[in-house]
Write a structure and sequence with these properties.
single chain, 728 residues, alpha+beta, OB fold (Dihydrolipoamide Acetyltransferase, E2P), BirA Bifunctional Protein, domain 2, 8-stranded mixed beta sheet, 24 strands, globular
């Protein structure tokens, strides 16, 4: 593989020092002309003429045709144009020399392409120039339009021509394409040459153009909303993520870049702008990965006089419109366009049966709690926890136990498995079901454990389960649901996901994973260790061709999130002293009056009126019904979260807006980068962003962030503390 690079052009620097202070001489030294710089015809005869003031303004006093738009010519062929002389500009493709007398080469301006045909007898100078010029050179061509030859069909019929070609009369280079830039299928370009990545990676370029079309489609799909721009220079407020600060010249003062336009859009609801949207730039100083950037784009929406259901229904209609656009401009069929309403799943069911709060419904096998059937000696082998919860997950890889074993070895030795091996509560226990081995490959479970696993998987599939088997099933499901006589599982509502009543029986080659976790830790943080491992194994199995890829789109609403989450050492939260923080942000309303009552007695069990939109394991966005009462908002911050008075003062503007008769409202934000990535089939949002940052938050093409100069530090009254590079 060739690594492309560009050598520094030191010659230009030397020339600039020896050139006389004469504009004409400098222009000539660089191979330019006043006509080239003015954008006027550049044939040799015309270029020898002096430019008048009128000509510099675009008035042409010669026979060369005016500059034409290539796309407008190519996309609307007309017999009346045949024989016309036109002047167009574009970049050359690869030259194809048919003979010493004839050359073909495509010319493209990015929007359209036309084939140039050069004949030595027609224009010897232009023909010689084209035969020796390098592909990707920008040129200006004057030529005569003619029909491109059409080959006869198999039955000998001659179809009428429908496409132009351009017979070259003259051609002139508009710039050089240097030889030190390597080309070819094996050439790769590093992030410091992002312009070459975009230019020569057709898939990347196609994704960026599709993103542009999505932005146009967004505005078309929201005719009932008002687009309002909100400030980028905001103030620091504790919404939940780490902020970027922008120093000001006022001593001790700084702006903060917005994590989202959340507070501004709520103020708009109090301002009479009842339906708002914005394609908003947002900034969060958080750990980076494939689906995160320090600056990102989201579609931000808010609606007055509605609730969570109203927002979800409006968003479903919007998503259908976007997927119709995808079908038209990218790929797909009618089967890919989702049907509303989307399935809903409670946060508890997502965490208990999928192990993550953004489930991928293409993974059919679920997680269950099985500590009641795991012998104590096996628990001691996988964890040092006393009385742990033990989760189980099985997956069929459609291959022999030997092949599964090879897959597991490769998987376990991979760097991606290190976080699972380093889990302080213990690593995973891995088993391969093989009826040809003693105790069918599950000897660590013992005879009783094996029988219980066999009873649980497959009970009631082919015949009614025995009372003993049903008792095992009921015990495991009750533990997974965390249900009891005093706390039965909730009744399933229409269009709400619930676990299936039966499970697939054990099959030869099934991969079985168990994982321990603490009993006294509430399900929070968005995933369990086994949930993360389950997703990783499925993705790895698809990559290894052990599971057929599923191209379907499975949209899902996750609802009934906890309003608060216990504090941790990684998320800044809202800076309160309650020992917990808002799961999403402190503006989310409790879901029911009963949840309002829990704020006083048991706040960690209060449910939020929040919802996330998930697609194939990717969180596309989230929203909620907001607190529209100033008294309630202030009480949540002061009494529930116990935020200090100084931080409460940061929200004075919001309290005032809510106090002024603010209507009930709800809204959501949709990650534009993630949505376009999913629509175009890539896992990294860097593939749909023109100039992304790397995993250190750096743009290596331009060299940002840059070191502050002494003058800048003095202007903003800043001082550098610590060594360079600390904090990363």
């Amino acid at each position: 593989m060739l690594r492309a690079y560009c050598r520094s052009r030191v010659g230009a620097r030397i020339i600039s020092h020896v050139l006389p202070n004469n504009g004409s001489s400098a222009i000539a030294a660089f191979g330019l002309s006043r006509r080239t710089l003015a954008g006027l015809p550049t044939d040799a005869a015309a270029d020898a003429l002096p430019l008048s003031a009128e000509a510099a303004g675009g008035v042409q006093r010669h026979e060369s045709p005016s500059l034409n738009n290539l796309a407008s010519i190519v996309k609307s062929p007309d017999s009346d144009d045949i024989g016309k002389s036109i002047r167009v500009q574009g970049s050359l493709g690869n030259v194809r020399n048919v003979s010493s007398k004839m050359t073909f080469v495509p010319l493209s301006d990015g929007a359209a392409t036309i084939q140039l045909i050069s004949l030595r007898d027609n224009s010897p100078d232009a023909h010689k120039f084209l035969k020796g010029i390098r592909a990707n050179t920008p040129v200006e061509v004057v030529g005569t339009l003619q029909w491109k030859n059409v080959k006869p069909t198999k039955d000998g019929k001659q179809e009428p021509p429908r496409e132009y070609e351009l017979l070259v009369n003259s051609v002139q280079s508009l710039n050089d394409f240097p030889a030190d830039i390597l080309l070819g299928e094996d050439a790769t370009y590093g992030p410091e040459l992002r312009h070459l990545q975009i230019r020569f990676d057709e898939t990347l370029k196609k994704r960026l153009i599709f993103r542009s079309e999505v932005l146009k489609g967004i505005r078309t799909a929201l005719p009932d909303f008002h687009e309002v721009e909100t400030p980028i220079l905001f103030k620091s407020t504790p919404e939940g993520a780490r902020e970027f600060l922008v120093p000001s010249r006022t001593t001790g003062h700084a702006y903060a870049l917005p994590q989202s336009p959340q507070q501004y859009k709520q103020v708009l609801m109090a301002s009479g702008i009842n339906r708002y949207f914005q394609v908003a730039r947002c900034f969060r100083d958080e750990d980076l990965r494939a689906d995160r950037q320090p600056e990102f784009t989201q579609l931000d929406m808010e609606m007055a006089f509605t609730n969570a259901d109203g927002v979800m229904k409006r968003m479903e209609s919007f998503i259908v419109d976007m997927w119709k656009l995808r079908q038209k401009l990218w790929a797909g069929s009618d089967r890919d366009i989702p049907s509303a309403p989307f399935m809903r799943m409670t946060y508890d069911n997502a965490m208990r049966f999928h192990g993550v709060d953004k489930p991928d419904l293409r993974i059919k096998d679920l997680t269950y709690r099985v500590e009641s059937i795991v012998p104590d000696n096996l628990k001691g082998m996988i964890t040092s926890l006393e009385d742990p919860i033990v989760d189980i997950f099985k997956i069929n890889l459609n291959c022999s136990p030997r092949q599964v074993g090879a897959f597991v070895k490769t998987l376990m030795d991979s760097p991606e498995m290190r976080p699972f091996h380093d889990n302080p509560d213990g690593g995973p226990g891995v088993f391969i079901y093989d009826p040809m081995k003693p105790l069918e490959g599950l000897a660590a479970f013992g005879h009783e454990g094996l029988e219980s696993i066999r009873a649980f998987y497959g009970a009631g599939v082919e015949e009614p389960a025995s009372s003993e088997d049903q008792a095992i099933v009921d015990k495991i499901l009750a533990a997974t649901n965390e249900a009891s006589a005093e706390n039965p599982p909730p009744v399933t509502e229409t269009n709400t996901w619930s676990p299936p009543s039966t499970r697939e029986p054990l099959e030869q080659g099934d991969l079985i994973i168990i994982q321990a976790r603490p009993r006294d830790v509430k399900l929070s943080g968005g995933s369990t260790p086994l949930g993360r491992l389950r997703s990783h194994i499925h993705k790895s199995a698809v990559a290894a061709d052990l599971i057929d890829p599923d191209p379907s789109f499975n949209f899902l609403w996750i609802v009934d999130f906890p309003l608060f989450t216990p504090s941790n050492t990684t998320d800044p939260g809202q800076g309160g002293t309650a020992g917990f923080s808002s799961t999403h942000h402190p503006f989310t309303s409790p879901k029911t009056p009963a949840d309002v009552d829990l704020l006083h007695s048991d706040p960690l069990h209060a449910v939020a009126d929040h919802f996330d939109l998930v697609l194939n394991g990717v969180e596309l966005g989230g929203g909620s019904r907001r607190i529209h009462s100033a008294q309630m908002q202030e009480w949540i911050m002061r009494e529930a979260l116990r935020m200090p008075e100084a931080r409460l003062a940061d929200f004075k503007h919001l309290f005032e807006a809510l106090r002024a008769g603010c209507p009930p409202h709800a809204g959501m934000a949709l990650g534009l980068d993630r949505m376009v990535a999913v629509m175009t089939g890539t896992e990294s949002i860097r593939d749909v962003i023109a100039f992304p940052k790397n995993n250190r938050g750096e743009d290596v093409m331009v060299g940002s962030p840059s070191v502050m100069t002494e003058g800048q530090l003095a202007t903003y009254q800043l001082a550098v503390v610590g060594k360079e590079g600390e904090g990363r």
